[in-house]
TrEMBL record:
<dbReference type="InterPro" id="IPR030564">
    <property type="entry name" value="Myotubularin"/>
</dbReference>
<protein>
    <submittedName>
        <fullName>Myotubularin-related protein 9</fullName>
    </submittedName>
</protein>
<dbReference type="Pfam" id="PF06602">
    <property type="entry name" value="Myotub-related"/>
</dbReference>
<comment type="similarity">
    <text>Belongs to the protein-tyrosine phosphatase family. Non-receptor class myotubularin subfamily.</text>
</comment>
<dbReference type="InterPro" id="IPR010569">
    <property type="entry name" value="Myotubularin-like_Pase_dom"/>
</dbReference>
<dbReference type="GO" id="GO:0005737">
    <property type="term" value="C:cytoplasm"/>
</dbReference>
<dbReference type="GO" id="GO:0046856">
    <property type="term" value="P:phosphatidylinositol dephosphorylation"/>
</dbReference>
<dbReference type="GO" id="GO:0019903">
    <property type="term" value="F:protein phosphatase binding"/>
</dbReference>
<feature type="domain" description="Myotubularin phosphatase">
    <location>
        <begin position="1"/>
        <end position="300"/>
    </location>
</feature>
<dbReference type="InterPro" id="IPR029021">
    <property type="entry name" value="Prot-tyrosine_phosphatase-like"/>
</dbReference>
<dbReference type="GO" id="GO:0010507">
    <property type="term" value="P:negative regulation of autophagy"/>
</dbReference>
Length: 324
């Protein structure tokens, strides 16, 4: 599995033979490859006018391109703001709650991300195919898909150390701009241009899988909540900056302590261990059916405990998603 930004084909359909040669070199004998573009075909075509674009079938004959649309950061931020507003609604009116929850589209985004990740995992596990995942810059939805696909396929990514390595490799070293995406919270009155809950959505997807496979993960829900908190506000330097270059220039390794050093101390590690954990070497396939996806109460209702109608409201919400 590979990840990248979009190819710069532009309106003239420019080629990069080195790219073609490199990507084709990953194909196994007799196997084909899949390119999973996390943009819609329309968005990808619009990107060509700005110098971007997508791979042309004529130049990648052994590869099949599939578009699995995952919304971009500005839409995701609006979704988070609407979700937080719904969770803070004190009217105790179920219809109002359902309307706001549906309008946020948060669970829809989770379904889209998990669906794309399952597709990538299926191509690798069931066909032995090579997979290339990319969006526009390759630092947002691309990382969500590749990270979740590895959790589905690789048991080591479901351990505490393995998951920490996954976050370092797929998010920190790959250049997810934490400084821009997590600059403020959904409670802020001002809206930052590059703000987006991309990492939070990834953690929410992991929680959904953890809830469906409670014995297959070495870490618990609190571990995921802890990572969410430190991505937005932390006394450690792990999530500061937008990329490795910025962190190096800021000399964060010399000036700050690593979050992982703190987490992996025995007195802290015990808080994040799952007592139900049993090592599972199998691939796990999460369900994306409406009844399988739930609102992450540990994050979004942590200070507002669910009212009596919440369970009934979630059932109604499942029906809304199912029949629409």
């Amino acid at each position: 599995m590979m990840r990248s930004s979009q190819p710069l084909t532009g309106t003239n359909g420019r080629r990069c033979k080195e790219d073609e040669k490199l990507i084709n070199a990953t194909l196994r004998p007799g196997k084909r490859g899949y390119i999973i573009d996390t943009r819609s075909l329309n968005v990808a075509q619009q990107a060509r006018a700005k110098g971007g674009g997508f791979e042309q079938e004529a130049h990648y004959p052994q590869w099949r391109r599939i578009h699995k649309c995952i919304e971009r950061f500005n839409i995701l931020q609006e979704s988070l703001i609407k979700l937080v507003e719904a969770c803070n609604d004190q009217s105790h009116n179920m219809d109002r709650w359902l309307s706001k929850l549906e309008a946020s589209n948060w669970l829809t985004h989770i379904k889209e991300i998990l669906t794309a990740a399952c597709l990538a995992a299926q191509c690798i596990d069931r066909e032995g195919a090579s997979v290339l995942v990319h969006g526009t810059e390759g630092t947002d939805s691309t990382l969500q898909v590749t990270s979740l696909a590895q959790i589905i396929l690789d048991p080591s990514c479901r351990t505490i150390c393995g998951f920490e390595s996954l976050v370092v490799r797929e998010w920190l070293q790959a250049g997810h701009p934490f400084q821009q995406r997590c600059a403020q919270s959904a409670y802020s009155n001002s809206k930052q241009k590059w703000e987006a809950p991309v990492f939070l959505l990834f953690l929410d997807c992991v929680w959904q899988i953890l809830r469906q496979f409670p014995c297959s993960f070495e870490f618990n829900e609190q571990f995921l909540i802890m990572l969410f908190e430190h991505a937005y506000a932390s006394q450690f330097g792990t999530f500061l900056g937008n990329n490795e270059n910025e962190r190096s220039k800021l000399k964060l390794q010399q000036k700050t302590m690593s979050l992982w050093s703190w987490v992996n101390r025995s007195e802290e590690l015990s808080k994040f261990q799952n007592p139900l954990f049993e090592a599972n070497s199998l691939v796990i396939w999460p369900s994306v059916a409406p009844q399988s996806l739930q609102l992450w109460e540990g994050v979004f209702l942590r200070w507002n405990r669910p009212s009596k109608f919440l369970d009934e409201a979630q059932e109604e919400m499942i029906n809304i998603i199912k029949y629409n």
